[in-house]
Structures are given as structure tokens and as C-alpha cells.
Amino acid sequence: MNIFPCLKFGRKGNDQSTDSTGLILAKYASLHTHIKVVEIMDDDSGLKAKARVMAQLEEFAKGEFYLITDADIRVKPEWAKYMVRSMEQETGVCSGTTVVKGSGAWGKMQEMDWAYFMGMLNIISYNGVPATAVGNNMIVRADAYHQVGGYRGIQFSITEDYKLYSEICKKGWKWNNIMQKEVTAYSAPIFGIATLLHQRKRWLSGGRELPWYWWVLFGIFGLFYFFIPVLIILNPLAGLAIWVIKWILQTRLIAGIYRLIDEPKPGLFSFTVYEIFITANTLLTAVFAILPLKTNWKNRHY
Question: Structure pTM?
Fold first, then answer.
């Protein structure tokens, strides 16, 4: 399910859900007359998943701005207002900050992981380098959307949100990434290591379209976790010192993100456990990404 509204009405797309989503949406729409449900159908567009949903919803969208989010996302009451306020005159696309909210240690690790990478994304963006948009918390100017032909006019990508973002930027539109509490959205956690690895493989697969400097950053980030154990074996003092410095900088960044979005900061123990999580996750993702397996995302294979 995705939503593609203007400020006065909204359309929710039921993307061939196999659970009770259709019934829930129908009940919700009966209580809120400004919400209409669109059943997403197979077509010959060549589009899949969210890109096909957006392409079919755009037929109903009206207004100057399109706000996009997902079924597992909770936004704050003033989310739409603050997202629209972020769109300066020449801004074509903008995304807010999304964090995971779930119970238990597994949910907390994903929460910190999203906070960490959202922080790095915003640092890059604030320094004037086009990064990407978070498709579950995004706003697009209608003129910019239609200038690139919408999702029907751009080549299908497994990371459709980045594809739309990059095409809009290529047309000369400005972009923006906002990190403040009013536009913070909450996502449900991924359950199971296998599902998490498929999610990360999907991101990396779509990342093939990213500029070269992004892959330099990915390379530096990933190689750290492969080379630091070797360095520790060869020179334990130097290796551990580098790892501790990295942990301190990483912890300060994550803590700063929590302050910006006004969320309760994790304790020191959680930051320590997170270092174990991110190390294991990075190594497993690197291996899983090169395996000759299709990406399984929400029961669709790519």
C-alpha cells in the first residue's frame, strides 16, 4: 500500500495484498471520505511493485505536491504541512527522516542502524552533494514529477525512489533532505536475518545506478570490517585504537541524530551491541550480495 495525496485528498493503493489490507482500507475509507482506495492491477507498462503503484495512482493525483509513504509507516499529525514547507521554489524532491520502531533488541538495532545511515545521508546532502530520497517519507513537486514523465517515463529500477530522485535532479531541480522531529516517520522492523539481507541486497542492487563517489564510500565502509581484523592480528594496539576511534565517532553521530529528531537516546550498552550488529550485518551483506540468488522482497523476486 502506498499513498499519493495532495493536501485535500489522498489515494491509497492496495498492491494486490494477500492479507486483510483491502478490508482495512475499505473500512478506513468509509470513515474518511477524502480517502479513496485504488486496487492496483497488472498492466503492460513493464513496471513492477511500487513503481507500478505510483504510476496508477498518478492518474488521480491533483495539486502542486505529491506526498509518498508506505503501508508500514507512521507519520506525525503535521507531517504533510512541514514537508510542504520544505519545498522551496526550485526544489523538486525532498525526503524526511525515517527510523525503525520495534520492540526488543532486534528492533533497537535496526532503529540505530537507520538513524546512523540517515545521519550520513544528510551529512552528504547538506554538503551540496545529491544523495537520495527515502521513498517511504518523500514529497515531490508535481511539475518536476511530470517533467521526467513520472514512473511511466523512467526506466524501471528495483530502487524506484532513487530512480525518480535522480531523474528529477538531472533536470536541474534542487533537492532537500530534512532531519527534524516534525517530519520523522516510523517504520516497522524487518523480522528475520534472511529478510534483512534481502532488503540490503535490494538496496545494493539499486545502488548500481549511483554515482561513482557513492561506491567509493561504500567500498571504504565495507572494507573496514574486512581489514580491521587483519590489522588487529598484525598490530593489536593500532587495530584496536582505530576501531575505538571509529566507534566513538559513530556513537557521537548517532546520538546527535537522536537529538535532532527528538527521540530518546540509546544507552551505552546499546551502542556497544550495535557495533557487533553492524559488523556482522556488513560482512553477511557483502557475502550475500554476491551469491547468485534473486532478491526476494515482499514475496516478489527480482
Answer: 0.79
